[in-house]
Write the structure tokens for this entry.
Amino acid sequence: MTSTTTQTSSHVNGASKPKYTLYTNHFCPWAQRAHIVADELKIPFEEVHIDLGKPREEWYLKVNPRGLVPALAIEDPSSSEKPTIVLESGIISTYLADLYGATGSEAKSFYPPSTTVAGALARATMTFFVDTWFTKVQPTVMELLLLSSQEEREQRSSEIVAKIKQHIEPEPIGATSAGEGPFWGGSQTITLVEALTGSFLLRLQGLIKADYLSSSIIGSFQKETPKFSKWLEATCADPSVKGIWNEKAVVESTIGRYKKLAADKAAKAA
């Protein structure tokens, strides 16, 4: 299934834009990263849906031998050469951010240009924060999702709050003074930080609301990590972050998948 977005901007740095084809699946949080960047920066692309519930077809393995999504095909409309393929969500997102989002002041743009010391430092702090989320917080979330009982998940829910309090709350998420916005570094609009973490924040929020992860976590966030709580709400409410998000379908699918994984894990341990 293929569809084309409606954004119409046609030039990058004075040259015609390449044609983009995004191979994706709307249930995949990694693929959603590329959608968030493209939506926020108004980058037109064609979309090809890849069914992750069955073995990949041979044609797609020629696009991405790993069989994963997303993959981005970059085609020069004026050339007869084969499209260039870019793989992995972080690399695709950063490529697009480099090309279309590196504008504005170092502290406030979607992805600051690296042509100044301040811009390069801003990029480094953004990269460190995203790495911190995925090495310090996300593994704890995944560990709790694999617990087989609601009681266990309830008892250990404080572990997520503790990780966020230690590693995320001290970072510059949201406004620190009057007039600043709710996003990274006080930005009024989302940045690459929100684009790379937003799909996972949506799932965290959705699983808490569904009480698969304890609903009491929301109150703990508000009390113990107020900066994170506000940043979470702002990010999850942003139109670009929510773009392809189908909360009911994705949360139900996620819960079903983790229940099966937890059951399989328990069966092997028996």
The longest strand covers residues 19-24. The CA atoms of residues 172 and 185 lie 5 Å apart. The beta strands are 2-4, 11-12, 15-16, 19-24, 46-49, 71-75, 84-87.
